[in-house]
Design a protein that fits this description.
Structural class: mainly alpha
Shape: globular
Largest sheet: 3 strands, parallel
Number of strands: 5
Distance between the termini: 6 Å
Radius of gyration: 16 Å
Helix content: 55-70%
Order of helices and strands: EHEHHHEHEHHEH
Number of helices: 8
């Protein structure tokens, strides 16, 4: 799993890591967008929160994540990006994984300063990256993130990675966490 702020590059690094390990990349952002685009009941409920820069409620997210992790392509492992975001969601994820006979192998924390996050988000120019929404997203992120990082540190799964600098250098740092033959079935 990859943890980090909005604009930290965790999504980009998650895709690279998934390709390197030959497992699917599961992004809650992609799950949300897919459900919103398809106009599902959960997607319509999630859209209201996404547009306001707030966390999507756990009941919506939990259902989407559970359904995705139960798919056959995740049996050899997966890279999770964007979930969990709170300690409560971490506990929920543990329950989902236990019900599937799996466990989390590592939590990679991609650290990026707030100033750099703001600059990266401004440079993206997406509709949901206006100054007000970015400020709300950063406040929401900080409200929960430290506790989540502490949780994964306490359970011995956390690996901190400097997420600033060139994308290739960050990718090398992320990939360097795992030996060439990982042996992990769930990341």
């Amino acid at each position: 799993m990859l943890l980090g702020g909005p604009g930290s590059g965790k999504g980009t690094q998650a895709v690279r890591l998934a390709e390197h390990l030959g497992v699917p990349h599961i992004s809650t952002g992609d799950l949300f967008r897919d459900n919103v685009e398809r106009g599902t009941r959960l997607g319509l409920r999630a859209k209201r929160y996404i547009d306001a820069g707030e966390l999507v409620p756990d009941d919506i997210t939990r259902g989407m994540v559970r359904d995705r992790l139960a798919q056959p392509d995740t049996e050899r492992g997966f890279i999770l990006d964007g979930y969990p975001r709170t300690r409560q969601q971490a506990a929920t994820l543990n329950g989902i994984l236990a019900s599937l006979g799996r466990r989390l192998a590592a939590a990679i924390h991609v650290r990026v300063s707030d100033g750099e996050l703001r600059a990266r988000l401004a440079a993206r120019g997406r509709d949901d990256d206006d100054a007000h929404t970015v400020a709300t997203r950063l406040r929401t992120f900080h409200r929960y993130h430290a506790s989540l990082v502490d949780y994964y540190r306490e359970v011995g799964l956390l690996h901190d990675v400097d997420g600033e600098g060139e994308m290739e250098a960050v990718a090398e740092r992320v990939l360097g966490i795992f030996p060439k033959a990982t042996g992990f079935t769930t990341i």
